[in-house]
């Protein structure tokens, strides 16, 4: 007999084993340490909500949401990112994910989580849209630059001294958030507590954060990532944050990031983001090409709230790779 229930301590071993059976991408093989980091109360926005379906002693389906603190216009609230949609292969195509999701989103609503966003894969997308109340929000294209263009773009960079490695996200990053956040409408809150958890406390992957400084003042930052797939070394620009209208700082962020990747001799650099035409223009100017990858971001309302209509308007969002804990 099948049973839907909340996660209980010890389930993570079976969930990790299920994830290992289902995840086909070698560059996205998650370790058990990633599970504890992602789902536990280490997250400054709070513990995740996790539901499973079991048959006998076997967990056959799983769905969870990770809380994220967002600025939504003039309010800060806790929303969530749905991740870990998994169904044991022989149980697929029976609607199990929907039944688990119903319980999950009921709990989210009861805990005042007004909306949830997610990045379903091709198989899960239809279920999310047809049976779970999600709506399309954004389709991301990928910006890419390859080794010859990277090296060419970094030949005449003269402002590298202002681009410095970050060992810890300190009070300067809280001040940067306070200074720049009013320029954004809907955005994940990028304070020091969140940034340290997201990028420096993750135990299974190394990120490379850098800050741009002018006269000792932090003006913006980027977070970079390296990973190898077979013989190809790739770089990601995971996150960019600054005053949305500060072209000088954004240019220095891109220049510094490309210089780092050039020094690492990467074969290509990719990123995707939404909500800043200025950043896109700087990327274009440095030689990035936009590829139509159509990565879907979907959203569902868990309950009515003040900005229920506005959060479904893609024009209001700022979003980068780093705003997902599922892949990047």
From TrEMBL:
Top-rank taxon: Bacteria
InterPro entries: Acyl_CoA_acyltransferase, GNAT_dom
Single Gene Ontology MF annotation: acyltransferase activity, transferring groups other than amino-acyl groups
Matching Pfam families: Acetyltransf_9
Every N-acetyltransferase domain range: 2-156
Protein name: N-acetyltransferase domain-containing protein
Organism: Candidatus Saganbacteria bacterium
Organism phylogeny: Bacteria, Bacillati, Saganbacteria
């Amino acid at each position: 007999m099948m049973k839907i229930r909340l996660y209980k301590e010890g389930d993570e071993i079976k969930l990790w084993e299920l994830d290992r059976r289902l995840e086909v991408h070698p560059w996205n093989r998650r370790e058990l340490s990633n599970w504890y980091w992602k789902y536990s109360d280490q997250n400054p926005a709070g513990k995740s909500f996790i539901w499973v379906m079991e048959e006998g002693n076997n967990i056959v389906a799983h769905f969870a949401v990770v809380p994220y603190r967002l600025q939504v216009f003039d309010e800060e609230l806790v929303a969530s990112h749905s991740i870990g949609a998994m169904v044991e292969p022989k149980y697929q195509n029976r609607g199990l994910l929907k039944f688990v999701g119903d319980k999950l989103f009921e709990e989210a609503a009861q805990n005042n989580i007004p909306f949830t966003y997610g990045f379903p894969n091709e198989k899960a997308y239809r279920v999310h849209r047809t049976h779970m109340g999600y709506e399309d929000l954004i389709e991301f294209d990928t910006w890419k630059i390859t080794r010859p263009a990277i090296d060419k773009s970094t030949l005449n960079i003269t402002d590298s001294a202002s681009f410095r490695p970050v060992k810890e996200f300190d009070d300067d990053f809280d001040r940067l958030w306070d200074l720049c956040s009013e320029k954004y409408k809907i955005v994940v809150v990028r304070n020091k507590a969140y940034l340290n958890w997201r990028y420096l406390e993750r135990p299974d992957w190394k990120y490379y954060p850098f800050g741009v400084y002018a006269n000792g003042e932090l003006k913006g930052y980027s977070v970079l990532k390296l990973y190898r797939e077979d013989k190809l070394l790739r770089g990601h620009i995971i996150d960019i944050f600054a005053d949305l209208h500060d072209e000088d700082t954004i240019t220095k962020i891109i220049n510094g990031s490309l210089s780092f990747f050039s020094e690492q001799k990467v074969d290509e650099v990719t990123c995707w983001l939404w909500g800043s035409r200025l950043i896109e223009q700087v990327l274009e100017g440095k030689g990035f090409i936009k590829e139509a990858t159509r990565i879907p971001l979907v959203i569902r309302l868990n309950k009515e709230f003040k900005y229920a209509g506005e959060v479904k308007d893609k024009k209001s969002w700022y979003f980068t790779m780093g705003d997902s804990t599922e892949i990047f």
